[in-house]
Amino acid sequence: MKLYASDNSGNSWKIRILLSLLDVPCERIDIDFFGKREHKSPAFLKMNPRGQVPVMEIEGKHFWDTTAHLVYIARKWGGEQWLPTDPLGMAEVMHWMAFAQNQVQTGLQLTRGIVLKLRRGDTEEPRRHGLLALKILDDHLQDRDWLAVGRTTIADIACYPYVAKSPEGGFDLPAYPNVLAWVKRCEAQPRWPQRG
Fold first, then answer.
1. At what angle do helices 177-187 and 154-164 cross, to 10 degrees?
2. Distance CA 72, CA 97 (A)
3. 169: which DSSP letter?
4. Which parts of 23-123 fold into alpha helices (H)?
5. Residue 37 has what pLDDT?
6. What is the distance between the alpha carbons of residues 179 and 175, in angstroms, rounded to a whole number?
7. Helix (H) or strand (E) holding 182
8. Residues 108 and 162 sit within 8 Å (Cβ to Cβ)
9. Which residues pair with 62 in a beta bridge?
10. Helix pair 10-22, 66-77: axis angle to 10 deg
11. Cβ distance 6 to 33 under 8 Å?
């Protein structure tokens, strides 16, 4: 199993988190995102025509979506802990996985990218999505420690990186105390890797 990733990518960070928590060996290939722009090279585009990291090579196949990566790793090495197989529990986890791909991605990630000049655009619309994402999370975490099924799952991992990085996009994370406490709970998990 190979992971093509960049330290600057929150989506790459998601995969590194789960691999670390489960102590799963994986060959990592660093992709030079800014200097050489290797993610736009013909060789890389054969693996991922979207030209984005991460990409995982699993049993001779290439997967470029972080949800697919997290689901594969969770089911192969994580047992029921990270992605339950009962229909209700699985739906609850996948509900927050979709939230990570929608509100978190189109709000927090996109705003951060524009602010850091990694992307072009206006921050007005994505900022609204980001503020909504933080409010939804803060309300949800008011009376619970984790996003789904009462324990850490891939739902927490999917949402965490761009929430943790949201101050880089100009969001005031301390204004959402339940979210900030959740971020700290995530980071307190044994073997939870930091950036870089």
1. 110
2. 14
3. G
4. 42-47, 66-77, 79-82, 87-99, 110-115
5. 77
6. 9
7. helix 177-187
8. yes
9. 57
10. 0
11. yes
